[in-house]
Design a protein that fits this description.
Layout (H helix, E strand, L loop, with lengths): L3 H18 L2 E8 L3 E9 L3 E10 L3 E2 L2 E2 L2 H19 L5 E6 L5 E10 L7 H12 L7 E13 L2 E4 L9 E12 H13 L3 E7 H9 L2 H6 L1 E6 L4 E7 L2 E8 L3 H12 L3 H10 L12 E5 L6 E5 H26 L9 E4 L8 H9 L3 E3 L9 H4 L5 H9 L8 H16 L1
Parallel strand pairs: 1-6, 6-11, 12-17, 17-18
Antiparallel strand pairs: 1-2, 2-3, 4-5, 7-10, 8-9, 8-10, 12-13, 13-14, 15-16
């Protein structure tokens, strides 16, 4: 028979384990052109960063895998570091995908409500109808993102379940990726010894970590300015209405600098990060030392010459973004402006140039509502990895539920 003292103690154990069960350990992999990052996150009442792993990417170009073996090695190295830092054994990863093979379109489907009241089967049927579009054989749909439902021509419905009606319409945004690129990504993660729990378009992941509810409702354009690609989504009234990818990124800026200054790529990268696009034009006449490609001779150049190289490429990129947005008809649907994340967001003068070109607010996209090392959370390069973890499934090697039951059984064995 359980006495009152043991009953109270037992209740305390159950309550403590119940709190643990509310917490989920999720692991994510941000596979970029230049960097591979793995994040271990504890998700519950608070989102706590437990560990981060990093390695240099060696098998990607413009966001696309071109060497399986090198990519597998980068993944293993980053995972190992994340496991050591977090103390969590990783067996699955939520991963990102990007590249100019990404394609998207808005679609809609219409079905009759058979019972007169919308049920789950009606939702499934109308979603299937919206997805029934012709896409190239080498593509596969990776996201079906609900925008809104219309029931008997009444629009703006987010969840029609349980509502009476006869004609249900679904409007969705579809994102497709190259079958080969998708399969190569799965293959690399699998060959590294891990399971893919989820695959998500990079800016879609970033949006979960950095966008506010007000931004998403009013309308916002998120730009993930990476090394090999620049990926874009526009969210309006809480739904994704446009997405795209451009095969231009920070590496193109570095290449332009190296060619223009006749210097090495490492020196060009340094100048890009340290000098960028200075806002103060008075600095343009100042000199800086430029090494030749071999690094054994130096000469002086004006900072203004560097600024012209950097500015020309960034303006070209932003003009490409503008062209895509205008062609989609979404140019007036992001009143809250731009949120820019990725390594390119740290480029000096980048945000100011974007603001000047579009005459809209621009902010840097860093993680919101996380607990952990501020140097990681305040880094716009971490936004995709953190967002992936928020949307991912458990990446622990052993479930928390089984751990909870072990603890309760252990308590019972010691007390009865």
């Amino acid at each position: 028979m359980i006495n009152s003292h043991n009953g109270v103690a037992m209740q305390e154990v159950i309550e403590k384990q119940s709190e643990k069960e509310k917490t989920q350990i999720v692991c994510s992999l941000d596979l970029g052109t230049n960097n591979t990052r793995v994040v271990v996150l504890s998700i519950g009442e608070e989102n706590k960063l437990l560990g981060v792993g990093h390695s240099k990417s060696a098998g990607l170009r413009k966001g696309v895998i071109i060497n399986i073996e090198s990519t597998v090695s980068s993944i293993k190295e980053a995972v190992e570091e994340a496991e050591k830092e977090s103390g969590v054994q990783i067996d699955s990863l939520a991963v990102n995908i990007s590249g100019n093979h990404i394609a998207s379109l808005n679609s809609h489907g219409i079905v009759a409500v058979k019972t007169g009241v919308v049920c789950e089967k009606d939702i499934e049927r109308v979603s299937d109808a919206a997805r029934a579009v012709r896409i190239p054989e080498d593509k596969k749909i990776i996201h079906t993102l609900e925008q809104q439902y219309l029931l008997d021509e009444n629009d703006g419905i987010k969840d029609p379940r349980g509502i009476a009606g006869v004609r249900l319409e679904s409007r969705v945004h579809l994102i497709a990726a190259s079958k080969n690129s998708f399969e190569n990504l799965q293959r690399c993660v699998g060959n590294a010894g891990f399971r893919v729990s989820e695959t998500k378009f990079s800016p879609l992941a970033a949006s979960k970590a950095t966008l506010t509810a007000e931004e998403k409702e009013l309308g916002v354009c998120l730009i993930d300015f990476g090394a090999g690609t620049t990926d874009i989504i526009i969210v309006n009234k809480g739904a994704v209405i446009f997405s795209s990818s451009i095969a231009v990124g920070g590496n193109h800026v570095s290449n332009d600098i190296a060619a223009g200054l006749r210097t090495s790529l490492s020196a060009a990268e340094k100048f890009k990060c340290e000098l960028g696009l200075p806002l103060d034009v008075e600095q343009y006449s100042k000199k800086f030392k430029v090494p030749n490609a071999a690094g054994d001779e130096f000469r002086e150049e004006d900072i203004g010459f560097l600024a012209n190289i950097v500015g020309s490429r960034i303006k070209e990129l932003f003009s490409m973004i503008e062209e895509k947005i205008v062609s989609s008809g979404c140019e007036n649907l992001f009143a809250s402006g731009f949120v820019i994340c990725g390594g390119g967001a740290k480029l000096k003068g980048c945000k100011e140039l974007l603001k000047d070109m579009f005459k809209l607010p621009v902010r840097e996209g860093t993680a919101k509502n996380f607990i952990g090392e501020s140097s990681f959370l305040n880094n716009p390069e971490m936004t995709v990895a953190l967002g992936l973890a928020l949307g991912g499934k458990s990446g622990k090697s052993e479930s928390i539920v089984s751990e909870s039951w072990k603890s309760i059984k252990g308590w019972l064995a010691n007390h009865f």
